[in-house]
Amino acid sequence: MIGIFDSGVGGMTVARAIEQFLPDHPICYLGDIARSPYGTKSSRTISAYSIENTQFLINQGAEIVVIACNSASSVATDQLRQKFNIPIIEVISPAVQQALKETRSGRIGVIGTRATIRSNVYERQILSKEPEFKVFSKTCPLLVPLVEEGWLNKRETKMILRRYLHGLKNKQIDTLVLGCTHYPLLKHLIQPRIGKKIKLIDSSIATAQYLKRYFEKGKQLQTEKISATKKKESTFFVTDLTQSVQQVAEKIFQRPLKLERI
Amino acid sequence: MIGIFDSGVGGMTVARAIEQFLPDHPICYLGDIARSPYGTKSSRTISAYSIENTQFLINQGAEIVVIACNSASSVATDQLRQKFNIPIIEVISPAVQQALKETRSGRIGVIGTRATIRSNVYERQILSKEPEFKVFSKTCPLLVPLVEEGWLNKRETKMILRRYLHGLKNKQIDTLVLGCTHYPLLKHLIQPRIGKKIKLIDSSIATAQYLKRYFEKGKQLQTEKISATKKKESTFFVTDLTQSVQQVAEKIFQRPLKLERI
Q1: ipTM of the predicted structure?
Q2: Residue A158's closest chain B neighbor by CA?
Q3: Hey, what CATH topology would domain B2-90+205-261 get?
Q4: CATH class of B93-203
Q5: A152 and chain B: CB distance < 8 Å anywhere?
Q6: Per the CB 3.0–4.6 Å rule, which of B34, B51, B99, B154 could disulfide with B239?
């Protein structure tokens, strides 16, 4: 079983992509809504929450855990790998790999929460592989509340995006990493504002593809184990449940979803 | 000692007002930043957090606790009063009293978070005293992130406010309750958009005045006890600490502030 956690509903874009790329694998999702968002909080707090979430998923039977949150991936991955004896997949490396594959000019933009951008993890990972490349980062703290509010087509959202992206536009990037699992829901607004020719890297799809290759490479026994047994149902846990959470979750999955409050 | 808690830094507007109206009383403040915001969460979760916060303040020596958060005041006051044997002051009744005093037309607007507006507490309290009055409520979920982002004068903030207030403007209210402790920081933008003649009710000031009258009425022995002993220092605890938290806190208090992480 694939365990997936996020601070809230944003990580469901990752869960949804994993469901599409790996339809035979049951998912156990945990959205820590009661303490969301993570992106505005300190590294110490995000790490403590990530450890609790991972433990919960392991208790539920997860044999591999995906950190479906850029903020938690940025600051808690090393600690989780030290603490837990199962594979921990994060969303940064797959997005970086994808960005390195797509860029022609070597000028890459990254947008994310305060925690993600403060950690500087995208720049470090990109430059460790391509020291000559240039990385331009921008924190976009209001995008998460705008998505959670469901303002996906409002004029104010477009203006705020224009303000956030303005500086990056002048940097002549050819690739932009959507460094937060909420941002794919704003792709249709980001693309025309950053420029049609700029390649957008969606970390949810990159991570699902990465996970698929990971299983195919046989680094994991999970695939055989799971395909040998009868496919279990996927389950979705949340630490808090409100109407808006239910709505955004079903918007992402485009079907009714049973969210279980724990 | 006066204990004060909030989900984050918004409640510091209340702490600041209490400090100004009751300068002889030491304050013990708790900002639950690690789990903020509360306004988007369920009543059950907000109540559970409020109980923990109150217990913490009592352990620190608080003899009276102020719930400096409209969301928590709306949904957790009864439970706190049942559970704890000290006076629990909330921010709703003082704002309601003030609104009833100010209104001429009996048409009152209320803006707040999802949790506050969903609880319907303002309307219930106002109508229980003045059944003929009309109350018009509006949830404004993006105002908290905009304040915490420090966008206090940005064009986008003005546009979002205009959108939120538009419906209320047509209701011919003469009084508007700022039903969230973050909103006083946007007073200068709210006043021109709702209309110069509309009376704004700031729950932080209303609560501080209420508390002052409460002490003066001698319902509490605290006043004498405190004035008899040497004034202790006020302390400010937070469950998480980032640079933005420190900045907003000092903006509210207009002086350097020592925030202690717990």
Answers
A1: 0.84
A2: B156
A3: Rossmann fold (3.40.50)
A4: alpha beta
A5: no
A6: B34
